[in-house]
From TrEMBL:
Residues 1-20 form the signal peptide. It comes from Dysgonomonas termitidis. Keywords: Signal. It comes from the Bacteria. This is Outer membrane protein beta-barrel domain-containing protein.
Length: 267
């Protein structure tokens, strides 16, 4: 679904080269801020766990995002607005139609429970019975729960280019493309082989991304925006227990669909 959305948005943006108006989408010196929400999809990934008495890799692990039920309580109450999967971004136009931005993509990653995957290496001796004769293992609650649900937290800077392709009265419709890079500060919630649950923020790795989107601006003041973002995440240093000797490493591709609202101003 995300690939179809991306292709559709790219087609719209390409058409803007033909339909573009003479004026810029946004002028140099404009600031903007946005807040929104996201849905996410992840490729399967290998996850390597290492500690003092274990060293193993789980292969092609499936994971999903965690969508909160849409309601005023979950999405609009001020004391709960960071509970869903959210986006915050600030931007400044360094020239007409071109902005630099800084933002946080608060995605959520949950390993699908009770899936069966291949495993290499050795687990703790008391959990060896969980490994099947064919080299597979079922990821049950007593063996492993693994998620980044207080945020996958992709903190990134992006360069964005906008093109206006429709203007009438108070309405401007703009296309945008962009890309960026940043670091991952997940709060990983992990319980593994009888260890105490660990849930803490930790600088875990880096990410890269590209995106395309549509921007509807009213009165040159308020806007609503949707983007399709695809990227790569590599986290070689995921904390899994209270001990710094216990770490996990994983890398995967992600697709993110965002829908946001914001405002812009020009001094």
């Amino acid at each position: 679904m995300q690939k179809k959305l991306l292709l559709a948005l790219l087609a719209i943006i390409q058409s803007s080269l033909i339909l573009a108006q003479s004026g810029p989408a946004y002028r140099k010196g404009t600031f903007f801020a946005l807040w929104g929400w996201n849905r996410d999809a992840y490729t399967n990934s290998d996850i390597h766990f290492k500690g003092n008495d274990y060293d193993f890799t789980l292969h092609k692990v499936k994971a999903s995002d965690k969508q909160n039920k849409i309601s005023y309580f979950n999405y609009l109450r001020l004391d709960r607005i960071t509970i869903p999967q959210t986006n915050l971004r600030l931007g400044y136009f360094i020239k007409d139609n071109m902005a630099i931005t800084l933002g946080v993509d608060h995605m959520k990653y949950v390993m699908d429970q009770n899936q069966t995957v291949d495993i290499d290496g050795h687990v703790k001796p008391e959990y060896q019975s969980h490994v099947n004769d064919d080299g597979s293992i079922k990821l049950t609650d007593d063996f492993l729960t693994f998620e980044h649900t207080d945020g996958l937290n992709y903190i990134n800077a992006e360069l964005e280019y906008y093109k206006n392709f429709f203007h009438k009265g108070i309405l401007n419709v703009n296309g945008l493309i962009g890309g960026g890079a940043g670091f991952l500060m997940p709060r990983s919630n992990v319980m593994m082989m009888g260890n105490e649950r660990h849930d803490a923020f930790h600088l875990a790795g880096f990410g890269l991304n590209a995106k395309a989107g549509l921007d509807l601006n009213l009165w040159n003041l308020f806007f609503i925006r949707s983007e399709v973002k695809e990227g790569y995440i590599n986290m070689p240093s995921i904390r899994t227990t209270v001990s710094s000797d216990d770490k996990a490493h994983q890398a995967f591709w992600f697709a993110e669909l965002t829908y946001a609202f914001g405002f812009n101003w020009h001094f």
